[in-house]
Amino acid sequence: MAKHITVPFTKEQALSLKSGDSVLISGVIYTARDAAHKRLTELLAKGEELPFDVKDSIIYYVGPTPAKPGQPIGSAGPTTSYRMDAYSPQMLASGQRGMIGKGKRSREVIEAMKENHAVYFAAIGGAGALLSRCVQSAEVVAYEDLGAEAVRRLTVKDFPAVVVIDAEGTNLYECGRANYLSSLEG
After folding, report:
1. Residues in the chain where the model's pLDDT stays below 70
2. Distance (Å, rounded) from C-alpha 94 to C-alpha 56?
3. What's the confidence (pLDDT) of residue 28?
4. Of 71, 83, 57, nearest in space to 128 by CA
5. What is the tens place of the pLDDT at every residue in 97-130?
6. Could you tell me which of 76, 73, 54, 80 has the C-alpha nearest to residue 160?
């Protein structure tokens, strides 16, 4: 049974989730990929304010396709998360609480997640058209010049994801594989 998560995504919510949990996320999340993350962390390095409140936020690593008439967003499937690994520790230290993407994360990101009580969620790759149905509204809030990679504020309802790495650093990609392999031995 999926757990319902409402954003803002608090420390208490993050700590209540375990690797392998299925979740449905509702509320405001933000989109950003590597080009936007580079700009955001440059602002942080200069001590400047970000174009959105990062505290208790969830950032979805996505570059959506253009919206069809009457739709808030086009296909919106996750991008590979390791592209943000150079920037994620600084974003997490600034208050970001969750990340949605696909694929593995670096040891540095996992350590920053543990220090800052953050969670890494995976969305289903290849299901962008289905995931876009969970988006109720979308608006560009920064870096419009980046096109699909601009920062957007999305209002989502029951956006499906899986906790891959929880706030304690338990990694589903590692423990899931180990559990499977041990089941083959027995």
Report:
1. 175-186
2. 9
3. 98
4. 71
5. 999 999 999 999 999 999 999 999 999 877 888 8
6. 76
Q: DSSP secondary structure string, 32-87?
A: --HHHHHHHHHHHHTTPPPSS--TT-EEE-B-PPPPPTT-S-S--PBPBGGGGTTT
Tokens describing residue 175: 């423990």
Q: Is the pTM of this model over 0.90?
A: yes
Strand-pairing partners, residue 161, are: 23
pLDDT at 182: 55
> Is the Cβ–Cβ distance between 107 and 36 less than 8 Å?
no
Q: Of the listed 33, 37, 102, 152, which one is catalytic?
A: 37
Cβ(104)–Cβ(88) below 8 Å? no
CB atoms within 10 A of CB 138: 20
Q: Which of 31, 27, 60 lies closest to 158, judged by CA?
A: 27
Q: Does the annotation mark 37 as catalytic?
A: yes
C-alpha to C-alpha distance for 25 and 56, rounded to whole angstroms: 13
